[in-house]
Amino acid sequence: MRNLIAKIGLAAAVALAPMSAFADWKPERPINIIVGFSAGGGTDATARLIASSAQEFFEVPLVVVNRPGASGTLAAEIVAGSEPDGLTLLVAGGSESTSVPNHLKTNYSLDQLRGVIRVNREHMVIVTKAGSGLKSAEDIVAAAKENPGGLTFGSSGPASILHSAFLVFAKQAGIEMTHVPFQGGAPALAALLGGHIDMTILTPGDAKAQSEAGNVNLIATTSDRAPQLPDLASLSELGYDVNVENMKGLVVQADTPDEVVQYLHDKFKAAMESETFESLAGRANIQPAYLNGADFDAAMQNMSKAIKEALSE
Amino acid sequence: MESRIFAAVFAVASLIFLLVMVPDLKASFSANPMFQTAGLGPTAIPYFAGGAVLILSILMFFERKPEDARSPVPEESLEPSSDGVASLRNLAIFTAILTGFIILMPVLGFLVASALFLAAVFLAFCAPSPLIAVIIAVAAPLAIDLLLREVFLIPLPELGWF
Amino acid sequence: MDIFLTSLAGQLQPMVLLTMVVSVVIGMIVGAIPGLTVSIAVALAVPVAIFLPTDYALVMLASLYAAGVYGGSVSAILLNAPGTPASAATAIDGHQMARQGLAKKALNIALLASAFGSMFSILLLVTFAPLLAKFALRFGPVEMAGLLLFTFTIVGTVSGSSMIKGLFSAALGILLATIGSDPMIGVPRFTFGNTSLLDGLTYIPLLVGLFAIAEVLKMAGEGFPRQSHDVELGSENKARNRLTGSDMKAISMPMVRGSIIGSFVGLMPGIGSTISAFLAYADIKRSAGSTSKVGSGDIRAVAACESSNNATGGATFIPTLALGIPGDAVTAIILGALVMLGVQPGPLLFVTNPGIVYTVYIVLFLSTVMMVIVGLVATRALVYVLRVPNLYLMPIVALTCAAGSFVVRNNVLDTFVMLGAGVMAFVFGRVGVPVAPLLISFIVTPPFEEAVRQSLAYSHGSFSIFVTNWFSLIAILLSAIVVVLVALAQRRRVIPA
Lengths: 313, 162, 497
Known about the structure:
- Chain A is of the alpha/beta class.
- Chain A has helices at about 1-25, 40-55, 75-80, 95-105, 135-145, 160-175, 185-195, 205-210, 260-270, 275-285, 295-310, and strands at about 30-35, 60-65, 90, 115-120, 125-130, 150-155, 180, 200, 215-220, 245-255, 290.
- In chain A, the strands form three sheets. Chain A has a six-stranded mixed sheet, sandwiched between helices. In chain A, strands 8-5-9 form a three-stranded antiparallel sheet.
- By secondary structure, chain B is mainly α.
- Chain B has two domains: about 1-70; about 85-150, no CATH class.
- Chain B has helices at about 1-30, 45-60, 65-70, 75-80, 80-110, 110-125, 130-150.
- Chain C is an all-alpha fold.
- Chain C has one domain.
- Chain C has a two-stranded antiparallel sheet with strand order 1-2.
- Chains in contact: A-B, A-C, B-C.
- The interface between B and C is large, with 72 and 74 residues.
């Protein structure tokens, strides 16, 4: 009899546990931060940066786990299908969130992920080869109108955010260009410098270095002005309504309770305000751009919508 | 004989590939105008490779053994037919143990699974010295795990890996 | 010159040298373990490196890189299980030498040739980097398509006695290479809805399966004979294993040719050191004539393959430093690390940050020297691996293979790819189908398909683009000539004289 009561009591305790736990939620097991790209890349750098500066605010270990594959969509699929317990976070906000699901069938959608915090953003800069005669966005539009499909743009792969950015630009400018995908941004840049394609997209740091060496013409950014290139206008300033860029932040499975998301958000926000983060981000040339979870979600949704519209003709 | 069975299996497999899988792939994208490409499409290389495998496996089926034309190469003498059954059994046992290890590694973690794997292999192949076998079955997984995970920081599966 | 001396002095401090020794040793071990490759070592070192001062970080990454490629040849020679893909070609003759009791000699030749290849490409890097980088840029998709078409002709050299079986193996490699996302439009091909397959069959597990696991399975079939029956350790006499003057003379030309081939391949994006080693192998086999013993334990083949794959490693730094465009996955990681260390790579790196450039030169050079020293010491000990009974050694090899296949992407699927490739290669061995053609076409097909289809995107579908371009036209003609020559040689061999 006592045994039965004990069992019922235990069952009740188990049933009630989640509720009481969420009221004052605290992680009790290590938190995995999933990165959809290999160690040593840009997304991995962001993950390790935020993880190492946030560790002091958490009592459990923060573990960065690389699950590279399929342009980051493998990791997104894993997190979208994970338990909503707040212990599995994804570094999201780039191609896998805003671009790929609009091009191809994926086993997840952006709605299955929920923003925790945006950490940084990375501008994208359209460049052409120096001496090519394409010196401005107007030159590109004029040349493309004269010979539809004659201009080629290089991307880091089909369905990547670089591909999407050019598609949105082409739609807004009412022009047609030919897509030439490469395996990553580096071979696309090599092809541009060799004169095999007409334009591609670089990070502001690379764009600045290549333009100072006289290798490329800077055309415009695809969102707003980049701090590294304050004199370079954005496409929207030039009259083309384009707002596509690479963002990085943390997201969790969409059904994760508010309390859990709030807890994670507060801790990571404190980490972003720490000195460790500031010094590491400064050294690594990462541009912090805080947004709370809801605003991060909205930013991703807006970008995704624009890309979807550009794709539906 | 082995060679002919091999060739026949690949001939049938390449026919399935060419008649079912590649057409399926074509159907998966050809409806979408976004996916039109100039020149070669996604099915060009698969058709080429599948066709080549088919033709070459048919040729292989009818190929005379090159050894017939030249001096006999010791390929036959290496495996006397009396050992054939024992060899096949050994192979099946080892492959089964290795498969079991691969399935269990993510569940039990690298350390436990690999100790079990070594123990099973040593047991199945009658290690001459039980003492050495036990030592290796315990020490090798520990050493590899320590080296990879602690020194090189390579994240091997641990117990409770999701 | 001042900057050069400051950089040099910076590298000769005890702590920096210690970092270098440790990194070289780790690089060799990681390279030698089948399944773990130098790119994993470098990638995993990055999180550590970004917290170190720039000099230490560069020393660590470059030393890992330099030593890792040589490490791969150790297990290729001793176990016939190439530790890194780049040493698959070395295994052909290197392991034959080991079976003939010449393991130590093979290891030393591999070490010498590795060092020679590295030095050769570092010299190119120091003297002609900007020029060579500009030259490499002229290779667009059309030229790459021609070049890659030519690399398919290596298949003829590694096909063994039956051309039909060699071509069959190559065709299957092409077919397997089409699994994954289409390179132009991204639709999945033959993935059965599995996202893990979108990047195709992962290359490291496939290689480890084809070579190392197949070798383990072969041993298992034989019931793990105590020692590989023909490794005559008893006769391992010092005199036979000593490098003589005539040996050095014999390997000097192959090393130069291998280094040139390797450096050229290193300049081109997307081909890599595995193919460069096989290209050097094919070259040495052709130039050595039909009476040579290339394929059954020739020192020239070991020297050519090893100098070539190491030269490729050094040469990938040329576009990396001169243009700020990484030449392969490893240099991409090193560039990424530079960015995190606050150095913006780019074409002006020579002007804005000459110290970094000189540091890289010196580190690459010193780590090669260090690799020779550590390697010579290690060789003495390494041959004793052959004394470990196979029953104990081979299952451990299988373990590290599985671990290595797993950690490439933290993905269980990859360990199954390894197992499947191992079983397939074992069956291939039983029926006399060579594995090397499959590996080569598996590696070359993706960049080839990409280059061809990129070219067709420019030309709006017209194939004439490949014959109007002089480089691609020459490559097509050369490929055709090689195919005809190989076919004639084959015919002569099959019809008994």
